[in-house]
Each structure stands twice: as structure tokens, then as C-alpha cells.
Amino acid sequence: MRWLALLALLISVTACAPRVSAQPTETATIDHIVPVTSRWLQVYVRSPAMAGIVQIDLLLPADAGSPHPTVYLLEGIDSARPDQNDWTAQGGAVDFFADKDVNVVLPVGGAGSFYTDWQRDDPVRGRQEWETLLTRELPPLLDAEFHGNGVNAIVGVSMGAQAAMMLAERSGDLYRAVSALSGCFDSADSPGQAELRYIVSADGSDPDNMWGPAADPEWLAHDVLAHASQLTGKSLYIYAATGLPGAHENSASPNLQDVIIEGGAIEFGARLCTEALQRRLGELGIPATYDLAPAGTHSWPYWQDQLDAGWPVLAAALER
Predict the structure, then answer these.
(1) CA 198 from chain center: how many Å?
(2) I want to staple 267 with a disulfide (CB 3.0 to 4.6 A). Which of 122, 150, 201, 243 is the partner?
């Protein structure tokens, strides 16, 4: 019966082994499109990497028939609406980009995922292959279908800021510019990993399903500070405030106490993280444009302001 024991051992090991992300044997395709307006489309993409259909919202420029760059917008931990990316739900992206000659790509459903390829399918989240989707599947598909010219920038807020920097480091010259707003950027050290694990587990997901147990080398492989040299040559716009109440905190603000206390504490942490990134980029001689504001909480009114403030950096890189 030794072969039965061997078979049982093999089944056990296979069940516990990480799922290895493979090169997709198929290309992503558009399943269907639902127009919200003539320039705001919900594009449902059949993704081999995600093993299903993923909603990708797309904002088109007024002259949608001419070649133009693409800007990717990543949201944070929570999403106000399951059918929208928070950049449209709360961040003012529709109005802001109305006069900009770019495509705007807004993934829906990635909140709290870190937009990365997970090692294992998760009982709560299912298949998570966001990095493959965003950096390999979507760019050629959307460029071909919607007149993209192959020039890209990426913007992220909070968790999405860390993801934007991480994707920019790991995807070569895919992105010419990165805007990171109120993010943290380390995943390898104990405090950084603890933060990521807390975020991932907030909806009941298992953090080990993302990059493995604490000692797994994938945590270091995704550490933005450890691989900051890969940002060389990219245009960078980086923002964080102190967490102190600022221009958008007043008696008319909804949930004012929560915004000041919780949003203030989170933004203070993001400020410390951002200063660590600033020091690291300085050591490497990598230039960036910083807005380290004296006041402001971890909340959408400030990030909406920063979309406008950081646009000249992105526009110059995109030659717009």
C-alpha cells in the first residue's frame, strides 16, 4: 500500500502548492460594451488571466478617432459602489478628463487587491491576476480597439498608489509617468507587510493567498523601496499630507469626526511612508515632483485636487 500513501502525499502537496501564473495562451477580448454616456463606456473584457469577465470602465476623449495616450486610474481599499471605480464615483474623473486628449482606463473590482497576481485563488476574491490583466492583456486590446498610441501613465490613490508604483517598476517602459497619492511603499519589512496583510484580510481574504507566508520572497519582490531604481527615467508626481484638518474639513463635511480622526491618522502614516520614498529616490538620484502638504486628511476631496495638481507632470510625459 506504499503507493496509496505516496498518492495521498502527492494530492496533499498539490492542494497546498501555489498556483503558478502562466503566460496566457489566449488573448483578452471584449465580450460586450455598455455605454453610460457617449464617452463613458463599461467595457466587459474576457480575461484569460482572470479566468472570467472583468468590468473596465473607459473614458474617451472628444476626438476619439485620433491616436492618443492612455491613463490608468487605480482606487484604494474600499469602493463606494461595486459598479464603479472610485475615481468616477468620488474622484471627479469624468469632469476632469472631459477636455483631455487621452483614454482613461478605470478597473472595477480591484479595491483591496493591490492589483497584483495572487499565488492562489482566494475563497472570497476568486482569481486575482490584476498585474497580468493591466500590464499585458489590456494595453494591446484597448489600444487596438480605442485608438491608443502605446503611451501610458498610471495614477493611484492609497492602496492604489502603492500598486501604481509597483506596476511601474515591474513592467519596464510600459508607463512613462506615475502619480502616487497618499500611499505606502514597503512590503518586505514587518510593519509594511503587516499593513498589507490587514488591508487584504479586511474582507475575509487570506493574505497568504496573495504573496505567500511572511518569509516568501514575493513580499520582497513587490517592495517599491527595494526596487526603486526601476523608476529611473519615469516622470513621478508624489503627494501626501500631514493628516491635520485642512481646507476640506468643515462643519458641512459628512462624517466629519471619522474623517478627522481616522482619515487624519491614515494620512499621517502615508506621509511617513512618502517621506521614506522621497529619501530613497534621493539616494538614487531619481527626480520627482513632490507635494508634501501641511494639512489634509486621507479623503477624496484632496485626491481630486491632486488629480489636477499632478496633471502637468503627466501631460508633459504624455506629450499632451
Answers:
(1) 17
(2) 243
Q: What angle do CA 174, 166, 33 make, to 5 degrees?
A: 60
Beginning with the edge strand found earlier in the chain, give each strand of the sheet holding 52-59 in spatial order: 29-35, 40-47, 52-59, 103-107, 68-74, 148-157, 175-181, 235-240, 289-292
What is the distance between the alpha carbons of residues 153 and 194, in angstroms, rounded to a whole number? 29
DSSP character at residue 312: H
Per-residue pLDDT tens over the stretch 283-319: 999 999 999 999 999 999 999 999 999 999 999 999 9
Query: Which 3 state secondary structure label does DSSP give 227?
Result: coil
pTM of the model: 0.91
User: Which SS3 state, helix, strand or coil, does residue 135 take?
Assistant: helix
pLDDT digits (tens, 9 = 90+) for 147-200: 999 999 999 999 999 999 999 999 999 999 999 999 999 999 999 999 999 999
**DSSP-derived secondary structure for 141-188:** HHHHHHTEEEEEEEEEETHHHHHHHHHHHHSTTSEEEEEEES-----S
